[in-house]
Design goal:
It contains 12 helices and no strands. The chain is an all-alpha fold. The chain has 2 domains: about 1-80, Serine Threonine Protein Phosphatase 5, Tetratricopeptide repeat; about 105-219. α1 (about 1-10) runs antiparallel to α2 (about 15-30), α4 (about 50-65) runs antiparallel to α5 and α10 (about 160-175) packs parallel to α12 (about 195-219). The longest helix has 26 residues, at about 195-219. It is elongated and about 70 Å long.
């Protein structure tokens, strides 16, 4: 069936449609676990957009197999910025989900690794979003310095709106850990008054929930 699809794709004269067809075939092969064949087809696609799409879908397939390092290697081959970033976001979220499932999986090596991957996301809104997601996932570990390391990464985001939104999530994460001083310190870095007030409200709520939980546990 795949061989027939390849023969048909080769007959397509329109270059863009031919590239799209080969990208679809590569995706199908990757979903079947035939990664090497999928890569061979994907790398021969001349159109940068469809080559990026094919490689991103191969990276997704590798992630579903738990092969994070291999997925990252493929993602770095992608020249199309949108597909490059989508693949990296998926990889970061895969690692984040591992932290959520089992906080024992979070180690300094793995935290540094996920941060290095996040740094390569060029789209600032996506980078800010995944950094905030990582911070929230790491809050359950009780390792304050890891969450603060995320805050340092967020400071490098130039877009003020996305930086402020990420700081809101990080401030709330710190408050949920009982780190009121650190949470309020992050909130003070938010320049927009509207977003800063939201951060302060969420800090107060997180601290209140923590206090109520402590009271319930002491009875």
């Amino acid at each position: 069936m795949i061989e027939e699809a390849l023969k048909t794709a080769k007959k397509i004269r329109d270059e863009s449609r031919r590239a799209e067809a080969f990208a679809d075939i590569a995706e199908a092969l990757a979903s079947m676990g035939k990664v090497d064949k999928a890569l061979s087809i994907a790398r021969d696609i001349r159109d940068e957009y469809y080559r990026g799409k094919a490689l991103a879908n191969i990276a997704y397939a590798l992630l579903s197999m738990g092969k994070v390092d291999a997925a990252f290697s493929i993602a770095r081959e992608i020249r199309n910025e949108s597909w490059h970033d989508r693949a990296l976001v998926a990889i970061v979220r895969k690692i984040r989900d591992e932290f959520r499932r089992d906080r024992a999986l979070a180690s300094m090596r793995k935290v540094n690794k996920v941060l290095s991957i996040a740094r390569e996301i060029r789209n600032e809104s996506w980078r800010a979003e995944v950094l905030a997601d990582i911070a929230k996932a790491l809050a359950s570990t009780g390792k304050v310095y890891w969450v603060l390391s995320i805050a340092r990464e967020v400071r490098d985001i130039r877009d003020e709106s996305w930086r402020d939104k990420a700081f809101i999530e990080i401030a709330e994460a710190l408050a949920s850990m009982g780190e009121a001083d650190e949470a309020f310190s992050i909130a003070r870095e938010i320049r927009n008054e509207y977003w800063r007030n939201i951060a302060l409200t969420r800090i107060d709520r997180a601290l209140a929930r923590r206090a109520l939980k402590a009271l319930g546990g002491s009875r």
